[in-house]
């Protein structure tokens, strides 16, 4: 069963989201880089009765600035929380809120899950949608895709939407109030574009896919060059350049590449980990960043790929500078049981998992071995790369 079929069954929809080759969902209709207060005109052009969707904390924090913008433009608004998660149950409840308020516009404000909820709700109700990211942790503000989770936060499936948001409001001052850790996570998620797209689509001949893969390489290089400096100077020009990379350029790649430029093992590992409750304390991009190391480790172990081995060593150094997780321990999963690790690996190796876009077969036991050896040294690498010796914690494979 495809993810779209699942989605239709789950929501009773009769219209399938157009993810065929005929449709290109490259970018939001409009992207404005201004303060939330200055975005009123752009929002008011899209509707008069917005439903504002976010987490309870975000809605409470931004209530006064939002109110002044919306009242200034005489918009009759209602607020709703997406809690407990971007789940089928929340969506059913929110559809009722849309009907009760007779909303003609959805405004999503918050992190990836709030924005994913707003986008898919707008898609279901056939309404325009505005995304206002409050952190640079993902490119969810840009893309025509939503991830659906269980009420307990376990990843279930993703849904392709029929268009990118109608308006994206990028307010740097809002993003600057988010913990630094969210930008670090966004860097991890954005880095995955290159490591995954080059595997899933590296030999594609389609013009836009080639463009997407090359942009993923540009994105990786921008992050390698600017991230460390950006993190020491929040709010600076270089910091904005890195925010643009994680929120906008990462979205461009998803838009150009679409469904044919897919995630591979890094996101499959993330999806498996979300089924371990203790993994909910780490952010999406943190789990994905760790997943990149696992993917490279699989390429080393199962394919003898030496380029993957050096890429992993390069990333380990970069992660150390940024504070991105390198191991299960770093993700707060140092004391999970073997059974939990096995469960995550089995889910990541499930029949429809993107891990199978790797050019070789991966079994759960092999994935588990890769998951516990992300920091293992490559033969001779200590000398070549002048890396300090790294212990392999709890390694099952060696
Ligand atoms: Zn991601």
Any overview of this molecule?
- The chain has helices spanning 3-11, 40-44, 56-72, 88-101, 112-125, 172-176, 180-201, 207-232, 237-257, 265-273, 284-303, 306-322, 338-348, 364-371, 381-385; strands at residues 30-32, 50-54, 78-81, 105-110, 129-133, 145-149, 155-160, 167-169.
- By secondary structure, the chain is α/β, with parallel strands linked by helices.
- It has three domains: 30-178, Rossmann fold, CATH 3.40.50; 179-262, Up-down Bundle (Dehydroquinate synthase-like, alpha domain); 263-376, Dehydroquinate synthase-like, alpha domain.
- Strands 1-8-5-4-2-3 form a six-stranded parallel β-sheet. Strands 6-7 form a two-stranded antiparallel sheet.
- The chain is globular, with a radius of gyration of 21 Å.
- Bound molecules: zinc ion.
- Zinc ion is lined by residues 138, 189, 267, 284, 288.
- Zinc ion (ZN) binds at residues 138, 189, 267, 284, 288.
The helix fraction, in percent, is 40-55%
CATH topology of the largest domain: Rossmann fold
Radius of gyration: 21 Å
Shape: globular
Number of domains: 3
String of helices and strands: HEHEHEHEHEEEEHHHHHHHHHH
The CATH class label of the largest domain is: Alpha Beta
The helix tally amounts to: 15
Q: Which band does the percent of strand residues land in?
A: 5-15%
GO molecular function, one term: metal ion binding
Protein name: Glycerol dehydrogenase family enzyme
Organism: Moorena producens 3L
InterPro entries: ADH_Fe/GldA, ADH_Fe_CS, Glycerol_DH
């Amino acid at each position: 069963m495809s993810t779209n079929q699942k989605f239709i069954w789950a929501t009773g929809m009769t219209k399938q989201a157009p993810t065929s080759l005929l449709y290109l969902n490259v970018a939001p209709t409009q992207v404005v880089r201004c303060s939330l207060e200055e975005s009123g005109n752009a929002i008011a052009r899209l509707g008069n009765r917005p439903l504002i969707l976010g987490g309870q904390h975000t809605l409470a924090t931004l209530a006064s600035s939002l109110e002044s913008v919306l009242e200034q433009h005489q918009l009759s608004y209602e607020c709703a929380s997406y809690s407990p998660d971007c789940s089928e149950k929340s969506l059913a409840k929110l559809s009722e809120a849309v009907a009760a308020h007779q909303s003609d516009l959805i405004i999503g404000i918050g992190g990836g899950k709030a924005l994913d909820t707003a986008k898919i709700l707008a898609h279901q109700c056939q309404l325009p949608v505005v995304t206002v990211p409050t952190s640079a942790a993902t490119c969810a503000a840009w893309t025509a895709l939503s991830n659906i989770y269980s009420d307990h936060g376990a990843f279930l499936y993703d849904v392709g939407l029929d268009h990118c948001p109608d308006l994206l409001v990028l307010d740097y001052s809002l993003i600057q109030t988010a913990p630094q850790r969210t930008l670090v996570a966004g860097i991890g998620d954005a880095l995955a574009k290159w490591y995954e797209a080059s595997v899933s689509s590296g030999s594609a001949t389609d013009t836009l896919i080639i463009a997407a893969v090359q942009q993923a390489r540009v994105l990786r290089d921008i992050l390698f060059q600017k991230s460390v400096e950006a993190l020491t100077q929040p709010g600076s020009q270089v910091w904005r350049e890195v925010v643009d990379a994680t929120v906008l350029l990462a979205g461009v790649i998803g838009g150009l590449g679409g469904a044919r430029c897919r995630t591979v093992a890094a996101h499959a590992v993330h999806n498996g980990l979300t089924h371990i409750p203790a993994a909910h304390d780490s952010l999406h991009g943190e789990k994905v960043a760790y997943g990149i190391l696992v993917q490279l480790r699989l390429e080393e172990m199962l394919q003898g790929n030496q380029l993957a081995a050096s890429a992993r060593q390069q990333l380990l150094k970069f992660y150390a500078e940024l504070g991105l997780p390198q191991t299960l321990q770093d993700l707060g999963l140092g004391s999970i049981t073997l059974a939990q690790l096995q469960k995550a690996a089995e889910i990541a190796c499930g029949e429809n998992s993107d891990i199978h876009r790797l050019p070789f077969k991966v079994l759960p036991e092999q994935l588990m071995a890769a998951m516990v050896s992300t920091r293992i040294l490559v033969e001779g690498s200590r000398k070549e790369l002048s890396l300090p010796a790294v212990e392999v914690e709890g390694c099952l494979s060696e």
